[in-house]
Write a structure and sequence with these properties.
With about 150 residues, the chain is mostly helical. The chain is about 95% helix and about 0% strand.
């Protein structure tokens, strides 16, 4: 019986050792699971905070967009009218300057008064179109940052 008892005792020791190892593994597993649960909870909190910030930013952006759309429309209308006025000024100035510069040449070439008037009208229109085109070319250059 001695041998049976010693075998039983050894078996009991082995079982106790296995239990200690299993208990340690279970404890470690529970600790890892608890840690993962905490990490997931923290991530969910951060995600909710980020969503709240995104929603707030969207509300702010939509409020600013609504306000700026109205002012942009008014500003754009004012800008268009101002641009049209400036284009008209450029057309008049270039037409007058071009016509006055060409009068001596056409006076020399003209054979009749109607021909002189027609030639001066054509040069006046050409110079007006050139003035507007030149002004538009300068404004595009200014917008592109070349000037």
């Amino acid at each position: 019986m001695n041998s049976g008892e010693s075998i039983g005792e050894e078996t009991g020791l082995l079982n106790r050792g296995e239990i200690d190892v299993n208990t340690t593994n279970i404890t470690r597993g529970l600790f890892k699971q608890k840690k993962r649960t905490e990490i997931i909870a923290q991530s969910q909190r951060e995600l909710l905070e980020a969503r709240a910030k995104v929603e707030e930013a969207q509300r702010s952006l939509s409020a600013n967009t609504d306000d700026s759309n109205n002012s942009d429309i008014v500003f754009e209308d004012i800008n268009k009218e101002k641009e049209r006025l400036e284009s008209a000024k450029a057309a008049v100035v270039s037409s007058v300057a071009g016509t006055l510069a060409s009068v001596p040449i056409y006076l020399y070439q003209a054979t009749s008064v109607p021909q002189l008037i027609l030639d001066l009208a054509v040069i006046s229109i050409s110079c007006a179109l050139f003035g507007v085109t030149f002004r538009c070319g300068l404004s595009v250059t200014d917008l592109a940052g070349f000037a």
